[in-house]
Amino acid sequence: xxxxxxxxxxxxxxxxxxxxxxxxxxxxxxxxxxxxxxxxxxxxxxxxxxxxxxxxxxxxxxxxxxxxxxxxxxxxxxxxxxxxxxxxxxxxxxxxxxxxxxxxxxxxxxxxxxxxxxxxxxxxxxxxxxxxxxxxxxxxxxxxxxxxxxxxxxxxxxxxxxxxxxxxxxxxxxxxxxxxxxxxxxxxxxxxxxxxxxxxxxxxxxxxxxxxxxxxxxxxxxxxxxxxxxxxxxxxxxxxxxxxxxxxxxxxxxxxxxxxxxxxxxxxxxxxxxxxxxxxxxxxxx
Length: 286
Ligand code: NDP
What we know:
The protein has about 290 residues and is an alpha/beta fold. Helices cover about 35% and strands about 20% of the residues. The chain has two domains: about 10-105 and about 250-285, Leucine Dehydrogenase, chain A, domain 1 (Rossmann fold, 3-Layer(aba) Sandwich); about 110-250, Rossmann fold, CATH 3.40.50. NADPH dihydro-nicotinamide-adenine-dinucleotide phosphate binds next to helix 4, helix 5 and helix 8.
């Protein structure tokens, strides 16, 4: 039908490759359920065309959008303002056009993860959290854990130098003790009451792949989380579950980071259950 009145607010998801990126499904489902007329486009941007592509999106007054790999860092220079999270982890995954026409970049990955975790660990501040990985997802998560004031975070990464850089960049932002531990051979998880976060890319689209960790038998009160969302039940989560850990999948983080973005864009609270089920439907066809 022909549109009357104001034009639909436009949102983008830029990255490369973005074929198979499921965000559009959950955002459009949430927009529809809210009665919000926003439109969300998934756009594959050639790295060499990033500059004109971003200027074009901003010039056309896009109302906001998501940024995914490999542009989460490069996009920073185009924005007028950054939130504390985005500037601490030096990456933006969510952009919002403010009422004065300027653009602010945020990082909602770590915030989305934290929401999922707090829901199952209300005592999180008192816990020790082990994070495997030191890339974009790990950095966003460690940033948020430190801002929240978790007692201790230990970062373990295949390339130890990347873990050291991550921790050094966040040193002193809160009272959280930030440490690096070495990953030589199979990493043994032996402490009770831990939160263990699988934040490497291992397992994405590889149902059998798992990072090289082993859970001691009869661990008490350990929560194991994965950032990988496809498959939803990763080999890491299966291993943790069979060792008696409570598990948290990456789909919850994906839904939460998307819900935070929709709140920033529309000021409204989206239906997270609907967002999760639309992702599950999308995975069935992608
Ligand atoms: P990056 O490429 O930035 O980082 C990858 C990390 O994985 C690095 O720490 C790398 O270690 C490690 N790694 C890669 N291969 C191996 C291996 N074989 N063994 C051990 N470690 C390995 O990726 P991102 O951080 O951006 O993404 C990581 C995952 O998080 C992806 O699967 C992504 O889909 C997911 N993600 C999920 C989100 C959600 O909402 N659920 C949001 C954002 C991301 P090294 O430093 O040694 O190279």
